[in-house]
Specification:
It is a single chain. The chain contains 13 helices and 15 strands. The chain has two domains: 193 residues, Response regulator (Rossmann fold), CATH 3.40.50.2300; 166 residues, Response regulator (Rossmann fold). By secondary structure, the protein is an alpha/beta fold. Helix 7 packs across helix 8.
């Protein structure tokens, strides 16, 4: 039999071993660290509604990935975590948010509402990634559609999942060229890189597709600062325009179409975003057959899979005011999940190279990334506003009683445009 002090010494030894082992056991049992995604958007200010709408879309996509166990990696599956950073609609605030996100451990940045902000982020990320390779960042863009971002300003670290402005204008022209009634057009947009690009390309493509159409007005206005669009509506009516072409978004679109309706404009609106965020309700019956919108997907796409997709979103977000869903944002997160799994790590270079080969499908919608310029390729659809219940309009928008009937579907190979990108790869 061992003396009592031997037992005590063994007991202390076992306790010490147990204490040493405890942190390792806790670490083994701890949940894997999430992959942090930093959403940099306007969460306050005149465009706060657009930032909140984007957040809901991305949150739903992240929830889907996490519900199936996260992303499988060699060290174990890891969930996604979506963090919000408020840019307040200002480039300097967005750059400050980028620095905070990097300090917080995020290596995937998401942004889209404002091409000017996107351009500033691309430049800052290029500098960060060159200066600090240990904290490299990838930028996923879901809505900043200035063509320059995947042409002369293309970047290895930037991936765009929305069709750029020239692609969207080309899709709208598929409808314009068949509308013989249009003889006079008015071009109006927000005075920054994207708005300028839309007007420039609309003017060019009208000259090619419909040289018989006279451009009777071409105007840029301050972004997010105009509270009363009545003077602009008066000029549109005075010009004799039968159609307005605009890339306006957020309140700049809603207030424009509302002012035009109240002024008695009875022409057509060819828009990028006329199908959401209050625009259909603002224009009312005056928009039936007159408001045209281009998108990567619309709720009234006629397929069982599309209907299931839309119903699933409305189940998750049932409030009419939250009815703003984009397929491309879902495909963005699916592409990221695919790329991280394929790379086998969250290393920015490895994930970026894998993203160049992204090819994903969801609810019947397929998209692939073009490696040459990091421009996502997918089908586009053009819809015309009509009353809910009309043929082809099963679903309305935001409880307004108005929806969009799909009148043109442009296959990915027809929507695709050449690029001038000369990318410097890592």
């Amino acid at each position: 039999m061992n003396p009592p002090f031997i037992w005590r010494r063994k007991a202390l030894k076992f306790a010490a071993l147990a204490l040493c082992a405890a942190p390792f056991a806790a670490q083994a049992q701890a949940a894997p660290a999430p992959i942090r995604l930093a959403l940099i958007e306007s969460m306050s200010g005149p465009f706060a509604n657009t930032g909140e709408a984007v957040f809901r879309n991305l949150l739903w996509a992240v929830e889907r990935v996490n519900a199936r166990g996260g992303i499988k990696l060699p060290g174990g599956a890891r969930p996604l975590q979506l963090d919000r950073y408020d840019s307040k609609g200002q480039n300097e605030e967005a750059l400050s948010a980028l620095r905070a996100a990097i300090d917080d451990g995020a290596r995937i940045v998401l942004q889209g509402n404002s091409s000017a902000t996107a351009a500033a982020l691309v430049d800052a990320i290029e500098k960060n990634n060159e200066r600090d390779p240990a904290r490299r960042v990838i930028f996923l863009n879901y809505a900043a559609v200035d063509p320059a971002l995947t042409n002369e300003r293309c970047s290895f670290w930037h991936f765009r999942f929305d069709a750029h402005a020239d692609m969207r204008v080309a899709a709208l022209m598929q409808v314009v060229k068949d509308d013989a009634a249009i003889k006079r057009a008015y071009l109006i947009g927000q005075d920054y890189s994207f708005g300028q690009a839309v007007l420039r390309e609309s003017k060019r493509q009208l000259g090619l597709q419909r040289p018989d159409i006279e451009i009777v007005g071409e105007e840029l206005h301050p972004m997010g600062k105009v509270k009363d669009f009545a003077p602009y509506a008066s000029k549109i009516i005075a010009s004799g325009a039968q159609a307005v072409f605009t890339g306006n978004w957020g309140n700049d679109l809603t207030l424009l179409v509302k002012a035009a309706r109240e002024a008695g404009f009875n022409g057509s609106f060819y828009t990028f975003y006329g199908n959401a965020l209050g625009a259909p309700a603002a224009i009312g019956d005056a928009g039936i057959g007159r408001v045209i919108a281009v998108a990567d997907w619309l709720p009234n796409v006629q397929s069982a899979q599309s209907e299931a997709f839309y119903r699933a979103f409305r189940t998750r977000f049932p409030k009419p005011a939250d009815d703003y869903v984009h397929m491309r944002m879902q495909l963005l997160i699916e592409s990221l999940a695919q790329a991280v799994a394929r790379a086998g790590s969250v290393d920015a270079v490895a994930v970026a190279r894998a993203l160049e080969q992204a090819d994903v499908s969801l609810y019947g919608q397929r998209g692939r990334m073009r490696a040459a310029d990091h421009q996502f390729q997918q089908q586009l659809v053009v819809g015309v506003m009509d009353k809910q219940g009309s043929p082809g309009v099963q679903f309305d928008v935001e409880g307004s009683g108005y929806g969009f009937r799909v009148v043109k579907t442009i296959a990915p190979e027809r929507a695709e445009l050449p690029t001038t990108c000369k990318m410097k790869r890592i």
